[in-house]
Amino acid sequence: MRVRMFITETGDAPSSAHAPADRQPTLPPLPELEAVCRLARAHFGAAGAFVARTAAGAQRVLAADGTLPDPHLEPSVESLPDRLPDRLPDRLPDGCPPPHDACGASAGSPLVVWNANGNVQRNGGTQDAPRIVASCELAAPDGAHLGTLCIVDGARAPLDAAQCAQLRDLAALAAAALARAAEAAALRERLAAVEEHSSLMTLALTESGTGVWDRNVESGEIHYSPAWKAMLGYAPHELSTRIEDAYERLHPDDRDDVKAAMLAHFERRTGCYEVEHRVRCKDGTYKWIRSRGKVISRDRNDRALRMVGTTTDITALRELAARLRDAAALVTDLTDHVPGLVFQLQQAPNGRRFFSYASAGVRDIYELTPEQIARGAEAVETRIHPADLAAYRQSLHESSARLTPWRLEYRVLLPGQGLRWREGDARPQRTADGGTVWHGFITDATERKHIEAELHRMATTDHLTRLSNRHAFMRQSEAALRDVRTTGRTAAVLMLDLDHFKALNDRWGHPVGDRALRHFARLLLAETGPDGIVGRVGGEEFAIVLPRSDLDTALAFAQRVQQRAIQARLMHEDQQVTLTVSIGIDAMRASDFGAYQPLSRADKALYLAKERGRNRIEVYRA
């Protein structure tokens, strides 16, 4: 233990070279330290003496007697620096002379030390105001710093060797008292922490509906905590300690399982005893409980002697689980009996997709099982029509990227049902790992698509001839004109009229007239092929657009139509009904404002053909 004397102008205590590593317990006033301060002051005839201890980053005065160096410094006031040093600074500021040793080993004068405010002060005067003239560290047996004993006086004389030894003895007394006090304070804090923890554990067990039991296997007794008894509606004195009575309270259907679980733990076949079962309450009803326990004592033959454990009331959890099972069963029944497929589709961040849920409707929608599509969505893609597969994949990609609803109508080719239409609708969500999950529904849209197709046919087709009606023909003709404008290709337009059709109706009757119209329509379809546009635009008037055809091609086509009309006989009651046709021709031009213009020119050519005797072909001439 070293003693140093520091002479300052202010008498403030300098900061220490050491600091405690751990938080130190709060100490009460210590009469033993006050006695040491009185002894030190009286022995050295000093103005005062005090003991300071580092706490919360600052020096705290624990005991004092006499005058302190700072008139504002009182016991238990945090006004001193971090710690008083046990050695002088290694290096003094420039221009400062060497220090002065407390025990008389002069190294020069005057002395410069650090004051309590961290400023450098130079002692150059002869002032005798009270200040710290010597200090000695208080060290624990393990060398840990406990505090500092300081002597305060106005004198500047250093302590001699005997006085240094006496100061060390007084410091040892103070250190021992401080160590005992610190140990007692730490013990009190630990005890308070244990009591607090115990209170929290008791509160937690009580509030969680958990009770504690302790079984003496050898004597056949089992003891319950008050919370355990209250859980079943019993007062603290109302339950016996006999294990046989405990077994009698078990539900008859659970008793064997409980005994088997207990025996398995006794025989070390399980690491602990844990079982859920029913137990009879005081009012005769049964509660579901979860019991956990462990053998804590065995004899030398490894037989269980003592076992402790807890019991938790899980009745509410079991009831909730039952309600959840019922709700899940209801949802399953609903989704399995509603036509269509209810699904949850997951997409991992790497793009792999699989169906994490699929209702029984998957067997009808895709002719697959839920297990097949749970392994991966590839099985579904094998069912999608090749012409629609790219659109199917792209729609899911866009829905995932933008988190927009997925809606798609697509075709599937099924082993049993053949070509069918499907309609999908789902909502996406982003998952925590950056993937996507869809919840949706897929229905059979085949019947609706058939109805839509029939409605479309009825809206665009002439009911008698099955050709495009005037509205549909004009829409298709506009598309052909756009092709002429954008590609520069040619297209021919023909207007056709059955000659003397009114006379045919008058002679043969309207049913024969209708047959004649259907007969001529089939003839036109056969001649134009899949690329031609054919429509009925009036009573006995027909129009044709021949894409990628010039006037010469159109003229040759018209001649074939006339020949077929004459050669393809239409018979009625063993009599031939003769048909002839007049035709007007023109070409679409890129400068045309609409398809009506080339049709109007072809109609003028048709009028000229009829005017010149019918059964003729005329090409429009401007």
Automatic annotation (TrEMBL):
Name recorded for this polypeptide: Diguanylate cyclase
CDD domains (UniProt xref): GGDEF, PAS
All residue ranges annotated as the GGDEF domain in the record: 489-622
SUPFAM superfamilies: GAF domain-like, Nucleotide cyclase, PYP-like sensor domain (PAS domain)
Every PAS domain range: 197-269
Gene Ontology MF term list: catalytic activity
Pfam families for the chain: GGDEF (PF00990), PAS_3 (PF08447)
Organism, scientific name: Burkholderia paludis
InterPro entries xrefs: Biofilm_reg_signaling, GGDEF_dom, Nucleotide_cyclase, PAC, PAS, PAS-assoc_C, PAS-like_dom_sf, PAS_fold_3
Domain of life: Bacteria
Residue numbers spanned by region Disordered: 1-25, 66-101
Start and end residues of each PAC domain: 273-326
Basic and acidic residues bias spans: 71-93
